[in-house]
Every structure is written in C-alpha cells, then in structure tokens.
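Hi all, posting the design record for the shared folder.

TITLE: backbone redesign
STEP: 1 of 1
STRUCTURE INPUT:
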C-alpha cells in the first residue's frame, strides 16, 4: 500500500475509534442532564446510563477477539459502525430507561468490535517506520474524544438539546462506515472450521498464558484503573480554583506525551520499556503529589506530570501489541485482551479509589497511583522474564488461530 494511502486509512480508522469513544463520552458529557431526562431514576440506574456500554467488553473482550478473525476485519468494522449509527439514532429519542439501557448494552458490542478490529488494521496498514506513531495516535482516541465532546458536544447539546448530540454521533458513525467500506480491502473468505474446537475456556487460558499476547493487556489494566480514576476524581479534589484547569489539561498532556516523547522513546527503547518507564515516571509524580498537595502550584504540576507519564504508557501499550505479536491473528487476540482488561480497569478503578479516599483521605490518591504503577512495572518484568525463556511466541491452540 502506498504511504499516502496508508496515512489516510490510518486516519480513517482513528476516526472510527473516535466514534467508539464517543459511545461512552456522548452520555458522560450530558450526564448532569440525565435526571431531567429520566425523572425518578435512582443514582445506580443513572450511573449505568454511562457505564453499561463497557459491560460487553468486560465479559466478552477476549471472545470477541477470537470471533473478529473469522468474521473479517472490514466486515466487522463496517457492521459495527452501522450498528452504532442506528443505535445512536434510536437513543436520540430517549426511550424509557430500561429500553435505553438495553440499547446501551447493544452499543457496547458495537464499541467492542471497533476497538478490537481498528487497531489491528492500523498495525497492518502503517509503514514499519511509522508504526509507533500510528499506534500512539490510536491510543489517544479516548482522551481526544472526551476533550472534543467537552468543547463541541456539550455546546451542541445546550443549544439544540441532548438528542442533537446523539444524532450527530449517529451521522459520524454512518459516515465512517461508508468511508471504510470504500477504503479497506475486501476480507478473505470466511473459514469453514469451527472457531472454538477446543472450547472458549481453553482459548482464554491459552491467550492469558502467553507472555506475548497477554503482556500489553496485563500492563494496560493498571493504566486504565489509574487514568480513569484520576480524570474523574482528581479535578474536584484539587479545589474550585484548579478544577476546570486540571479537568481540561490532564487529557491534553496525556495526548501530547504519547504523540511526542512517547513516539521518540519507542524508536529508541521499544514499546515495552517505554510502558515501564511511563509507570516509573508516574511513581515519581505520585511522590511529588504526596509532598506538594498543600500547594496549588505543586499539586497542578505533579498531576500534569502523572498525566504525561501515563500518556507514555497509553501509546506504548498499544504499540506493544504489534511489537510482541507478528501475526494479525495474535494481534487480534492481544487487542481483545486489552479491551477486556481495560474495561476491568475502567470499571474498578474509580470506585476503588473513591473508597480509599473515604477511608484514608486525599493522600490515598498518590498511594493509589504509586501502587498501580508499581504493579504495572512488576507485571511487565514478569512477562519479559517469561518471554526471555522462550525462543518464539507460544502458538495458540487451533481455537485461537
């Protein structure tokens, strides 16, 4: 594929990722309007309004990775984008909450398919010299989308109603479905052999037993637990004077760190070492946060340092997928594992940190960051040691091929 064609295809796949991230963010950005849309709904039901999209990934992430290979990447992406467009269109009518939650679960399946298939296609499309940059770009899809929704999506919802935001999202998904249908090569014929001859459980065990396939995900869960919890809880804890500044700058410094220093370091150290370096820098930032909390300037500086450090982890974790796995099949399984464990982190991180803050006060925040980051380093060291004892990737069983 020509370089300029690869460039535009990578951007189109990233655009599909922005639509997938907006499946979370479009509700998050109007969450304060939810009690008016569904009067009488309790806080648990309204919380599910945002988070239930992640449930399919939490349960089926690795299974979906196994299925995507057989269905075909082009077919999966286009169908998932079209399904997301239709679901967002129906959601814009704001049906009864039970129906809306069911639609959101279905939307989670669309989201899961996109975030598994798109990064694999990016890894196959990008020239080898630009692979680190392409994967770092992909890794920014959540932070970029949440920033864009805050800047553009919320004003649209305020001006034309929350339904207008969901309609705009439906249009985005449909447009990228059409674009990728034209740009992506046709899928090969579907295999006629059963996908799970050894059983789904055996396939899962093989995936997580491999220090090549599972390694990016085992570090990524530590990142998502930390990053999402900090984005949610740190700005309000910082006080009124820093709340807005920190909420807007934290995702931006993560994007900047991933696309600049992260890409430069990956070209010199490799993706896995950059993940561990990012976690190590986050530990240093946690120490500074603990020492500087009484000072607004030190609090802001330490928080942004942590955000930039986690940006290195963010980009390098996705780049580790093709770095550790040569075949498209193994990369798909690794992407499914990232989706699954990433959802574990996003689901558990915020309530866990909230509970720690209630029990131990605000100093639980730097302790939580340091503990999660140290765990990420330890997991990668163990996986690196295990890879060193093998001459090549553990071949998955027939169910995974």
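Okay, here is what came back for every position:
SEQUENCE:
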């Amino acid at each position: 594929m020509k370089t300029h064609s690869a460039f535009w295809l990578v951007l189109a796949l990233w655009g599909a990722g922005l639509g997938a991230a907006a499946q979370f963010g479009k509700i998050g950005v109007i969450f304060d309007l939810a009690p008016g849309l569904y009067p009488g709904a309790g806080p648990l039901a309204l919380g599910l309004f945002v988070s239930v999209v992640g449930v399919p990934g939490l349960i089926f992430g690795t299974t979906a990775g196994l299925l995507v290979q057989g269905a075909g990447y082009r077919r999966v992406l286009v169908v998932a984008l079209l399904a997301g467009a239709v679901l967002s269109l129906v959601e814009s009518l704001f049906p009864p909450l039970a129906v809306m939650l069911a639609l959101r679960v279905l939307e989670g399946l669309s989201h899961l398919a996109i975030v598994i298939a798109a990064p694999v296609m990016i890894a196959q499309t990008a020239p080898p010299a630009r692979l680190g940059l392409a994967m770092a770009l992909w890794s920014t899809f959540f932070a970029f989308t949440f920033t864009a929704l805050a800047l553009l999506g919320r004003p649209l919802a305020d001006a034309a109603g929350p339904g207008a935001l969901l309609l705009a999202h439906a249009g985005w998904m449909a447009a990228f479905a059409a674009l990728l249908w034209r740009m992506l090569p046709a899928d090969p014929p579907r295999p006629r052999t059963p996908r799970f001859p050894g059983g789904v459980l055996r396939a899962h065990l093989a995936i997580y037993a491999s220090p090549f396939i599972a390694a990016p995900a085992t570090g990524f869960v530590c990142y998502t637990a930390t990053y999402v919890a900090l984005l949610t809880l740190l700005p309000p804890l910082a006080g009124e004077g820093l709340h807005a500044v920190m909420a807007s700058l934290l995702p931006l410094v993560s994007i900047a760190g991933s696309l600049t220093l992260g890409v430069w370091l990956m070209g010199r150290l490799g993706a896995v070492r950059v993940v561990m370096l990012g976690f190590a820098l986050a530990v240093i930032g946690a120490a500074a946060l603990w020492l500087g909390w009484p000072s607004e300037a030190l609090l802001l500086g330490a928080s942004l340092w942590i955000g930039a450090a986690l940006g290195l982890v963010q980009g390098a974790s996705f780049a580790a997928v093709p770095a550790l796995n040569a075949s498209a099949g193994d990369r798909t399984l690794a992407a499914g594992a990232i989706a699954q464990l990433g959802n574990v982190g996003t689901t558990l991180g915020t309530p866990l940190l909230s509970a720690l803050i209630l029990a131990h006060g605000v100093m639980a925040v730097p302790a939580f960051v340091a503990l999660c980051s140290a765990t990420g380093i330890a997991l990668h060291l163990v996986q690196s040691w295990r890879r060193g004892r093998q001459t090549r990737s553990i071949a998955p069983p027939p169910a995974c091929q």
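COMMENT: The radius of gyration is 20 Å.
Let me know if anyone wants the other runs.
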